[in-house]
Amino acid sequence: SDLTGSDFATAANWDPAGEGAYTGLTSDYVIENSGDAVVSASTLAFTTGSLSISAGSLTLPGNPSIGIEGSSLTVSGTGSLSVQFLKNIDVTVQDSGTITLFGGGNPSPNASFDLIGTSSMVHYTNKTVAAFTTEHLSKFTVNSAAAVLGVNLQAVSDGGNGSFITVIPEPGTYALLGGLLAFGYVMLRRR
Hints:
14% of the residues lie in helices and 37% in strands. It is mainly β and 191 residues long. It starts with 20 loop residues before the first strand and ends with a helix.
């Protein structure tokens, strides 16, 4: 059943009947405030609804069986999501949106990820760069194009057992920044 209210930060909206899991969600839920929400539900399973996070953070802590399934998820702006797994879901991460997957095993079965913009990031806390490359690279696109490590996508160690997955800026971005810096230098010299 759907949640009883639209405010993700209100605990009473999440588990009023003690169900634990929410399956068959059909509404579109939006988190657009700068607050943090910690949800104690075991699973959010969407059939036709969606979840969008554009500001603030959503955390589903705890057991290995806590995650989000189905339909679509968008994390954008300054939004962030921290969850054990994302399953059977189309994920878009854009702007400065971040997703942290802290589950072991396969934290993103049958999920697809599209990273849009150079500040978007996915953090696998229990997947080394080698494990990410072998198990998850094929699930990623960058601006809807196939992800290619070292070309449009990079995977770097988080210093532990995990990896950060980010977009590599296009060379044109560096050329534009260099041109702007050169122009600024010339303008300063003319003064």
